[in-house]
Amino acid sequence: MRTDYGYPDFAASATGTLLSEEKNDRAKKGTLTLMGVTGVLMIAEMSVHNILMGRL
Questions:
Q1: Is the whole-model pTM more than 0.90?
Q2: Using CA of residue 4, residue 16, residue 35, residue 28, what is the dihedral sign?
Q3: Half-sphere exposure of 36 (CA within 13 A, CB side)
Q4: 18: which residues sit within 8 A by CB, 6+ positions away?
Q5: For the segment 17-36, what is each residue's pLDDT rounded down to a tens digit?
Q6: Which of 17, 34, 10, 37 is nearest to 45 (CA)?
Q7: DSSP string, the chain
Q8: What CA–CA distance (Å, rounded) separates 14 from 53?
Q9: 4-15 per-position pLDDT tens digit
Q10: Is 5 within 8 Å of 13 (Cβ atoms)?
Q11: Which residues touch 8 (CB under 8 Å, ≥6 apart)?
């Protein structure tokens, strides 16, 4: 088993390093994207539900 990877700390070298501002912007964009998708799906679900209930 290979134990010498050429890095003093293999766990630190295996993870990507983002600056705090970049990480914060990336998190904000991801959150806004998920909120947008959830909103669209919620409106679509309510529309379909009302159409189906109207037929009854």
A1: no
A2: positive
A3: 6
A4: 26
A5: 656 788 888 889 999 999 99
A6: 37
A7: -----SSS-HHHHHS----HHHHHHHHHHHHHHHHHHHHHHHHHHHHHHHHHHHH-
A8: 53
A9: 656 555 555 555
A10: yes
A11: none
